UniProtKB/TrEMBL annotation:
It is found in: Cell membrane. This is Aromatic acid exporter family protein. It comes from Bacillus aerolatus. One of its GO terms (cellular component) is plasma membrane. It is a multi-pass membrane protein. The chain crosses the membrane at residues 12-39, 59-92, 123-143. Its main location: membrane. Keywords: Cell membrane, Membrane, Transmembrane, Transmembrane helix. InterPro entries: ArAE_1. It comes from the Bacteria. It holds the Pfam family ArAE_1. The lineage of its organism: Bacteria, Bacillati, Bacillota, Bacilli, Bacillales. The keyword Methyltransferase does not apply.
Length: 359
């Protein structure tokens, strides 16, 4: 288990909420601490959205609670009915994520009923809002982690592991069951990459120049993720159709190994070029172009598929799946190459993500 920034931010927000509530002399500062827990978010943009939603939730909970107490009292059945009404309102206003805070506000206000009820409700409302504000302040002061660095690091590590398994599979150096387990882990890591991409996407740039660069980078990172997914598809299908690959002719097996080796080396070259680890030279690009003979690869594979008998129709379909995955992988790399070249041309001074050797 890793101790992330969000854990420390939550603790600091609780302390701040309790301190401010105690400083103002509010009777139950613990409710401010509870509200602060609900409002901690990983990005500044999400913190802003959460603050708006929690403000609305707090108001809805308070209004429903005050209305029900004044009209019907605070019997436990009335509290339950008020909670149902509050939930219905929250769902109608599409504030599902803030239902918990609205119910907390509702219950702490409906706790008592006396002649000073309005004053009591106002104090409880203020206490909860202090917790929400404390969490928002902590989110602003303690800047979120560099999601771009984490995103590129995850893409790079998953790509390395995927290409490593593909190389081993091409040379029959893998165990079927071990690889199958690792494929599942890679799929989970790809889901985590998608979540990091959303975090990075939500980060806001202030300067117009930075906004343009950010938009180009978002397209570029999306293509990086897609290229890694295409390599994952190749690995998954090679593991699934291992038997069909083992029955290919030696010439076709060698062609497949050479073609995929060239594509994978090109993929690694593109990632290193993006972070400035290698230079983009005409000679280097020509090496990859000469190494990859797409026409020969396609002609050999299609000839193998056409030569199959009716009894081998299923095997031919499986080979067709592998062929389409490999070709799609190559097309994604070509597009990624164009995007990196374009980005380097129009944003040469843009800060590149830090390269992390270890996760």
């Amino acid at each position: 288990m890793k101790l992330g920034a969000r854990i420390f931010k939550t603790g600091i927000a609780i302390v701040l909420a309790l301190f401010v509530s105690t400083l103002l002399g509010l009777p139950t500062p613990v409710f401010a601490g509870i509200a602060a827990v609900f409002a901690i978010q990983p990005t500044i943009y999400r913190s802003y959205l959460t603050f708006i939603q929690h403000l609305q939730a707090n108001v809805i909970g308070a209004v429903v609670a005050i209305s029900f107490v004044l009209l019907f009292g605070n019997h436990i059945l009335i509290v339950g009915l008020a909670a149902i009404v509050a939930i219905i309102l929250m769902l109608y206003l599409r504030l599902e994520q803030s239902i918990g805070l609205a119910l907390v506000t509702l219950m702490v206000i409906m706790e008592v009923q006396n002649e000073h009820f309005i004053q009591f409700a106002s104090i409880r409302f203020l206490t909860v809002m202090i917790g929400v504000l404390s969490a928002s302040i902590v989110n602003l002061i303690f800047l979120p982690p560099k999601y771009e660095t984490k995103l590129f690091g995850q893409i790079n590590h998953v790509t390395e592991d995927t290409l490593k398994w593909i190389r081993l599979s091409l040379r029959n150096g893998t165990d079927y069951h071990v690889l199958k387990k690792d494929i599942s882990k890679i799929r989970e890591r790809l889901i985590n990459i998608d979540n990091l991409y959303l975090m990075y996407k939500e980060e806001r740039s202030t300067l117009k120049r930075n906004i343009t660069s950010k938009k180009r980078k978002m397209v570029l990172y999306r293509k990086m993720i897609l290229s890694t997914r295409r390599s994952y598809d190749i690995l998954r299908r090679m593991n699934q159709f291992e038997n069909e690959l083992s029955h290919l002719t030696p010439e076709l097996q060698k062609t497949l190994v050479d073609y995929l080796d060239s594509l994978m080396s090109f993929h690694e070259h593109l990632l290193l070029r993006f972070i400035g680890k290698v230079k983009s030279t005409t000679e280097m690009e020509e090496v990859f172009e000469l190494w990859v003979d797409r026409e020969e690869f396609m002609s050999l594979f299609t000839a193998e598929i056409k030569s199959g008998t009716s009894d081998e129709a299923t095997s031919s379909i499986h080979l067709l799946h592998i062929l389409s995955s490999v070709l799609e992988y190559g097309e994604n790399l070509e597009h990624l190459d164009q995007l990196i070249t374009s980005f380097s041309k129009f944003h040469p001074e843009d800060e590149l993500p830090e390269f992390q050797e270890d996760e």
